[in-house]
Amino acid sequence: MSMLREPFRAGLASLKLPTYRQRTTRAVARCGLAGKMCSGFSLPVAALSASIMIAAVSVVPAAQEEDLSAVSVALALRAEALIIARCSVCHSPDLIVQQRLPRERWKATVEKMKRWGAEISNDEADLLMQYLSARYHPAAPDQLPPIDRELGKAEPLTQEPVAIAKGPLTGVAARGAGIFEHNCQACHGAGAVGGMGPRLVNNPVLTHEESFWETVVHGRGAMPAWDAVLSHQDIADIHAWLLTR
Amino acid sequence: MKEEPASRLLSRRTLLGKLIQGLGVALMLGAIPRVRAEEVAVSKNETDGLIVRVVRPLDAETPVQEFASYLTPNSRFFVRSHFGPPPTETVSEANWKLRVSGLVERSTEFILEDLRQMETVTVTAVVQCSGNGRAFHRPKVPGVQWDRGAVGNAQWTGVRLRDVLAKAGVQAEARHVQFRGADRPVAASVPLFVRSIPLEKAIHPDTILAYGMNGRPLPLLHGAPLRVIIPGWMAASCIKWLTDITVSQDEAQGFYMQTAYRHPTRPVTPGEVIAAADLKPIDAMIVKSLIARPQDGASIVHGPVMIQGVAWTGEGKIEKVEVSVDEGQTWEPARLIGENHPYGWRQWQYIWQATGSGPRTILCRATDDHGQTQPKTSPWNPSGFLWNGWDRITVTVAA
């Protein structure tokens, strides 16, 4: 799977996202702060090779100050993965995609979601705010490609090599407990005894491994796809842990 | 009606409830695949033909051409909630109860059958999301980007809220009535959707608790088994899946009453900080009209064209609807037609002689008996509530 993604990623290597900036002194002061934050992961300016992004950049009206501080591809992918993993526990990403908000309203929104229990660290909240205000700013076009198609499949948050080609993975139950708690518990309940999502303890799906993997990787019904977030080793670990329950 | 402490009636009901539950389980065990297949079919029918804004929790609006009919069919009625419907077993007749407590003489529980035994009331009323038309506000504001269809007109059947409150007995110091439904957020850290209305509105004879919609049992997506209907008011107070009524001295506390669903009482500018004193809860609807037909973007030929739509307001009635085909420079009166119920919408029509060729814009605006007329655009507000700007479609006249 990761092999397939490579050419697409290479095409996006020079991706730069426009950042909306309001023309008030206070907003500029805030952006100055954000600029410092960005400078840590700024990329050299390069040609926009990804055609999907050209539309997004070219419609920023001339009247608006253009602040093209960069969000690197790697960080954009990580933000995408966070949206799928953390935000879509409670709501599908289409709610995000339809917003066109200035930075301070994205900031307020991300902070509210964190306060309401979104499982994101402060750094992750900053990244989300940076990404959302760059992509879904007031001057962005009405039609942007769906969140999961724009950048293709995002990279797993944990970066272990995917060993699927080398044969079946061996899950480590002890690791799986923590990964489950962070990613699955909100819906499937503490101890996997069920919640909004079904009970997984002794669930027949555990013994139909193909079905288990299919569901986790591609999603099913209300459950989002997790291949952008969990590595195959993560999934194997969760599976191993669930079998011990 | 179940009164506390437990009576003989209660124990009989509990037994009956257990029997019904047992029967339900037996049925399910025998026929799980069939039941599941039906559930899938129902849920598909319930959203077919709607414009889905958010997949989960489901928010979907009605295509406006549907408003050519006086009543909006249940399956085409807009759907909105903060957390999505509760699990069906929670609101099944066997498990569901309505609790009335707080500043009452006796905390009282009702099962659905208790309510069916009470005097039945039917009211035709428009129900509209406070954010209907949010997508038209500039600058854009956060929230579901509703276009024109987060509204509908239906016949609601149930009992008067005042009759339910009377069974529990309202204490003298009561001022507000709080509502809570069975829907729950995914994370416990998210505030519950609790809302309240002033007591005088709660005891208004037209404020009802509805278990029927357009002559059918209230569908799950619309709040089964029981929802609040406050004719003339925005849907934000029309709590679905109602389980708890709390009579209180104060407005409900919490996010959805004290922070959300508040509207500035004075003009505000984007980015400005608005003092709490300048915000009041969303309550009554304001005057509004829509063009149902022709469809926006339609191609039409020379000659007479029937323009039709609907108009409604909050606690008054529609006096007139006007149409403009010259960007609002001149307005022609439309004819009000069809049924006329106090809280329902009015249908209207206007025959336009289409001439020339190329794109033409058609506008409509309504005026109510309080002298409110739809403005060209509505005042900007941070949550994008109460949009009632002139409705606008563009058609192309063929040469």
Descriptive report:
The complex is a heterodimer of chains A (245) and B (399). By secondary structure, chain A is mostly helical. Chain A contains twelve helices and no strands. Chain A has helices at 2-11, 25-39, 51-58, 73-85, 94-97, 103-115, 122-135, 147-150, 173-183, 185-188, 209-218, 232-244. Chain A starts with a helix and ends with a helix. The model of chain A is unreliable at 1-69 and 159-166 (pLDDT under 50). Chain B is an alpha+beta fold and 399 residues long. Helix content of chain B is 15%, strand content 32%. Chain B has helices at 8-30, 32-47, 112-117, 161-168, 199-202, 255-258; strands spanning 2-3, 51-54, 59-61, 98-102, 108-110, 121-128, 151-160, 176-181, 194-198, 208-213, 216-217, 227-229, 242-248, 262-264, 279-281, 288-293, 299-300, 303-312, 318-324, 332-333, 335-337, 346-354, 358-368, 391-397. In chain B, the strands form six sheets. Chain B has a six-stranded mixed β-sheet. In chain B, strands 6, 7, 10, 11 and 12 form a five-stranded antiparallel β-sheet that branches. In chain B, strand 4 and strand 5 form a beta hairpin. The longest helix of chain B has 23 residues, at 8-30. The radius of gyration of chain B is 23 Å and the shape is globular. The N and C termini of chain B lie far apart (68 Å). The model of chain B is unreliable at 1-42 (pLDDT under 50). The interface between A and B is medium-sized, with 27 and 21 residues.
Give the amount of beta strand of chain B, in percent.
Answer: 25-35%
Number of strands of chain B: 24
Uncertain runs of chain A with pLDDT below 50, 5 residues or more? 1-69, 159-166
Helix content of chain A: 40-55%
Radius of gyration of chain A, in Å, reads 19 Å
Largest sheet of chain A: none
* Percent range of helical residues of chain B: 10-25%
Please provide the count of β strands of chain A: 0
* Main sheet attributes: strand count, strand direction, barrel closure of chain B: 6 strands, mixed
In DSSP terms (H or I, runs of 4 or more residues), the helix count of chain B works out at 6
